[in-house]
Each structure stands twice: as structure tokens, then as C-alpha cells.
Amino acid sequence: MKIDSKVTSRFAHNVVTSRAVNRGNVSKEVFFDVELPKTAFITNFSMTIDGVTYPGTIKEKEAAKKQYEKAVSRGQTAGLVKASGRKTEKFTVSVNVKAASKVTFELTYEELLKRRFGKYEMFIKVKPKQLVKDFEIAVNIFEPQGITELEAEGTFITNELQNTIKKTFSEKKGHISFKPTLDQQRTCASCSESALDGDFTVRYDVKRTTPDNLQIVNGYFVHFFAPTNLPNLPKNIIFVMDTSGSMYGRPMEQTREALLKILDDIKEDDFFNFILFNSGVSTWKETLIKATPENLDEARKFVRNIDASGMTNLHGGLMRGIDILNAAHEGNLVPKRSASIIIMLTDGQPNQGVSDIHTIETDVKNAIKGRYPLYNLGFGSGVDYGFLERMALENKGLARRIYPDSDAALQLQGFYDEVSNPMLTDVELNYPENEIQDLTTNSFKHFYDGSEIVVAGRFVDSNQNQLTVDVRGEGAKDALSYTTQQDAEQTAQAFQEQEYIFGEYIERLWAYLTIEQLLERRIAATGEEKENLTAEALALSLKYKFVTPLTSMVVTKPEENDNEDVIADKPTEAEALTSVSSMLGSQMYRGSQPTWYTSVDGDPHFVIWVPQKRDAICFNINENPGTVLNLINDPVTGITVNGELIGDKRANTNAKIQNSYFGKLGIANKHLGLKLTVTPEKITVQNGNEKMGFTWLDSVTLQQAGFTLIINRKKNLVLSMGSGASFVVVLHQVWKKHPLHQDFLGLYTLEEDKLSEQTHGLLGQFFHPIDFTILEIHPGSDPKKSDATMVVKNNELIVTRGWQKDYRRDPNHAVDIPCWFVHDNGAGLIDGVHTDYIVSSLF
Known about the structure:
Residues 1-111 form the VIT domain. Residues 236-419 form the VWFA domain. It is found in: Secreted. Its main location: secreted. The protein folds into three domains: 2-208 and 546-581, Immunoglobulin-like, CATH 2.60.40; 235-420, von Willebrand factor, type A domain (Rossmann fold, 3-Layer(aba) Sandwich); 599-771. It is globular and about 85 Å long. The chain has 843 residues and is an alpha+beta fold. Strand 29 (466-474) and strand 30 (479-487) form a beta hairpin. The chain is built from twelve helices and 53 strands. Mean pLDDT is 85; it is low at 559-564 and 573-596.
């Protein structure tokens, strides 16, 4: 196994090559596993078997999807990129290798290295899982500005292995090599297990004689901007903290611990305040307060006494913080030359005060008006991360997940450290409009010490070889304003060492950065704007052969007498989540054998039984009464199932999330001309021009051309449609005088395999085979339930072990079904987001 990395001007081109030989006398399956950074894009994958190479081709994701499903349905393995940790995704593929045959895997990925805390960082996951005769990591770096420092470390490096890391750098070149022998890889002298298991990290920085560096190659340019030796601006920082009941215990302890460390780092020129929100909103002080030693001591006492209880008035907390910051600026209470920041931490979803997320987004954007960035930190799995991310991006900030692990306090403090030293505000890098096109983002609210701004673009005239840039920003003492110039000849002189250059690297860097920013803008976009951003990002992904959330890489490999497709997919963050509390789990048996089975019942709880795992997944969908959701849609058989939600008779003021159930179901088969409408009061059958009505007091068996309907009095009905699937609708009746609840319906599907491969919908998408892996089971916030990490559909999700009820046989006596509950309206499990499944009417 060899990992070969070439870095040219921060842009890394990585090739992972693995060769294996089957020395046995029978065929064996060999696995190729690579963990790569989440910020990287795969650009190529190929397999060479007995001298024949099977290359990969990039396709639009939907075009590749059918090939993937066909491969999986044949029981064949398929390569996928899956989220595998906080910073990595795992690419996995396997292939059968004949006796005495060899196979070579080659995976290529590229990424733009980010500068954090004054250094560029390249992260390589090392996990060969076995002793490797020839193992090597080789990193070659070329920086035209010159290299000032270079270091490499590994979490698995022992004193003996330390000597195997070779490091050299001089002027513009740097080289790192790690090549342990077979014996050095062993966990002990007589062991066959590999000690190579962990993170290998390379860090370096470059010389900076000027604040920026411009490079021009073949009609493209890149501009690196990272001034040094500037004084830090004073900060005006508002901490908006969620103190609702769900933060009780360890989360609140870790938050207090992080805030106390942050208070130790706040400088005396800074101004700050704390806003706490639960059912209400409270503030430490009514205005921003200067960080004097006395005020910091008082703040520490305040933080130590923060406790958690109540609900989540996120809107109230954020708006109070924005109002205080706005008032401080309008009243000249803070220095004119200072940087204002809002950091908001929450572990849940708004359920008190204004709880509609679109209203919250609008109010926050209108109040901030682009004057300072909003940073949203989502603690744990209960947050609506898509909402937090959209709101942050709309206000020139970013969102960050805080994982509920033992180091959560360090994660919080680490984020603060990244934004704690602003050097400039309102940074603009301006280029001649008539000379440049397809420019990446060139205006930035803040520049932080230790980071770097990167802008790339394309010349209108590809033969142009000179560029002038006007740089502006506001510093602690005065404005920064200067002009810099570069020509292609200067870049060419700096790049005389051609062996370090890979392809048209500046053009690829521009494409990488453009796609990354288009995908980011797409998160907060809607309607036509979102469609245009998607089309533009897709076109660039296909042109430059990047595996992004919009594309897949397909490799056809030999499998006995058939072909097998390997799909490399790029996971995507959920783009628009909404409130959720989900659960799943259930089994269905024919005799004693479990079969494929899905259902939706209760509030509404979706349950998917996965037979090959002998386990189930569940999730909830939380939407308003009157919403109609598409559950099943099969364009081939013409079968659709939609459901309309109802709520309780009146809102439950003590509940965080209001109950909703299915109060009406519509099952249609357009090929038969059949429409079945089911409510808790009656059942209506429309078959062509014929219409029949029944109540739940009837016991009926109705046989018509193409379908059979059986009504079991006051219990359920069964609809079977010949060559199509069968459905069970369960009637749930409550006490008529119940002050809150009312009658509702549940839906259970049978024989889904009779529907086509094109079936979709909230339930229908799970009629196709689905695989998942459960990792790291550990105690959850509820001592009666375990949490775990689920890897499913290219995503890594925090899930909770729970129970759901199966009412198919008897609506009055349920069977408890264990399942893994996916939070956030099924985000990361369902395709797209749950609002994609809202339709206008029952038919």
C-alpha cells in the first residue's frame, strides 16, 4: 500500500495505491478501504486485475443510481463513500480475486488545504488492518513562496516508529516519508496484528514577505491573502446559550467548562455578554460589558451557576443578543474599530415563543443586516442542523457540529480559538471586472489571525498574463488599502521545478473552490436560484471529474460471467432539516421467517424492517395538521399512497413538540382507475365511475377486477392489488370524550417486492435493499436507552435504541418492536429532506 501526496500551492493531489495477490488455490474476496477527508473530492478510482484495468467514469448521481441499485439487487458488492468520523469519509470496495491472481486498486482525491492557527494541515488516515509487506506514505510539497516549517506526527507513532518518519525541507520544497518495515508494523515481536491504526498529520507554513501571493497559469489565477504582524481588533462578542432541560447534566457541565476557559482567554479590550434562553430569556448584563478583571471574575461566578430547565425559546434568545449588540454600536458603547460576533449554542429545536424556523431565519437576517457574522454551534443529535447552517450562512457565518463526547468542552473552546483573534473586518479583494469572470467569493466580513483567504478566477482573455488587485480592509488602527500586481512570467519562474506540478493545478483549484462555494450557497437557496446553483455545480463536477454530492463515479468490474457496478458517492449534509423526534422498529413474520416490511403509525412513527440485519430503523416526521405527505409513489405500477396529518383537539402547552397523526389516507392505482379514501369515520372506494361507501362498523369482502378489499369491523382493512403490493390500514379509536386525542390511522405495507425499482416516497424508498452499520454503542442521555453511530446511505448519524409498537394484528394490543431511532425527521436516512415529500392533495 502506498499513499502518494503531491501538494502544490496548498492544493493536494493524493493517490492511494493498494496491490494484493491471492496465493491460495481458490478465489478470495479482497477489500480496499480508504478513509479520506470530508473536504476532499474523489477524482478517480480504478482496478487492475490480471493486467486489465477497469477505469471509473463520473456520472450525474441519478444516472448512476439505477446501476447501483441493479448491482445491489443482484447481491453484488458496491463501493461507497460513507461518513466514518468527525473529519473523514470511508471509501470501501471489494472484489473476488481468482487463485494466483493479482489486483491493484488506485484511488485519487484532491483537496485545498486550509490554514488554521498559522499552519496548513493535511490529514491522512492510516488503517491497513493487516501487516503490509511494502507500506509507504510519501508527501512532496512545493510552495513558490518558500516553506518556513514542516512537521509530521501520528497518533499511533511509538518511539520505535518515530525514527521511520523522514522529514526534509529547504526553500520551496518539502518531503516527508514514512516507510515502516514488516517487523516495525507489528504490535509486538511475535504478533501478527498491525500497529498502524490512527491519524497521520502533516503541517507546514510558508514564507510571507508580503500580505498576499498571486499566481497566474494558463488563463486562471489564484490569490492567497494572509497578512501578518497586524494588531488584533478588539472583539464585541455575544454568547447566546441554550439552557433548556435537554442540556441538563453532562452537556451543561461541558458548556460551563468551555465558557470558563474562554473567559480566561478574553482580552481586556474586548466587550462581552451572555444571553441564556430556555422557556424564557435572561441576560447577564443589559449591555455589553468590558472585559476588566473584575467583570471577568463576576462572569465566572455567573457561568458556574448556569443551570438547565424548561423549553427552547431560541428566537427570543437570538433576537435579544442581536438587539444588545445593535444598541452597543448605535450608542457608541464599543470601539468603532472592533469586530462583533455572535456565537449561539443549542442542542435542540425551537418550541417556545416563535418556533417557525422560516420566521426565525427572516427575523434574524433582518435584525443583523449583514453587519457581523453569526456562528451556530449544534450540540448533539437533537438539533435541526440544516436550519442552523442556513441561518449562519445567511449571516456571513458558519455552523459547526459539537459531538456529545468526552471532549465536547475542547470542541467548543477550539471553535472559539479560531475566531478569537480578528485582524481585519470588511475585507474586499477587487479585480478588474472587464478582465475576470467566474470569480469565487472575494469579500469577507472578518479575517482571523492564523487563517488565510483564497480567491480564484478565470481571465476573459485566456492569453492574459498580468493582473492587478485592489485590497481593502479595516484594521485595529487604520484602514488597510493597497494594490498588488503579478504577471505569469513571475509565476513561471517560481515553478521551474516541474516534477512537483500535477496537471493544470490552478484551474483545478479554481474548479474545486467554485464547486465548494456553489454547494454552500445552495444550502440557503430556494426555488429557481437553487436549481441554477445545482446545475452550475453539477456541470463543473462532471467537467473536472469531481465526486461531489451531485455526482457519482461508476466502475464496472468483472464478477464471474456478469458485470458489477461500483459507485463512489460523496455524502452530503442534510440541506434543510426541520423539527424531529423519530423512532423506528418492527418485524413482520411469515411463519417464523422475517420478511421486508415498512409501516407508519402513531405520531407518525415510520418503521423499516431490514431483514438482512434482522433489525429495524425508525424515524418520526413532525409537520403541521393539514399537511399531506407522499408515502409511496410507483410510476410503473401506477400505485400511490398519500396521507394527511391531523393534530390533537387542542395544543398541548406542556409538550415540546405537538402530536400529529394520519387522519386520512389516499391509496390510488391509476392503471385500475382505483381511488380508496380512508378516514377514521368511513371508507370510500371509487372504481372508475363506480363509487361505494362503507363505515368501520361494516365487515366487508369486496372483490373487483384487479383488487380485493377486506374490512375487518372496527379493526383494520386489507387492500390487495393483484400484481401490486398489499396494504393494511389500522383504525385507532380513542375515548370520544378525551380532552386531547382523536381517532387516527396507521399504514402497514406487505409484499413491497411487487412494486418496481422506481418506487419512492417516505416509505417507498425503503422498498429497495438498504444496508447500515452500527458502531460505538454507548449510554445515552436517557439511562434506559443506548446511543450509537449509524453509518447509512453515505452518512454518519447519531441514533438511539428505542421501541415502537406494531398494531397490525390488533389495534388494542401492540407488539413492542426494538429499533434504531434516527433523529431530525429522518435526516441523513431519507433521500433529500422531509419537506420534499409534501404534496398538495390526497390524490
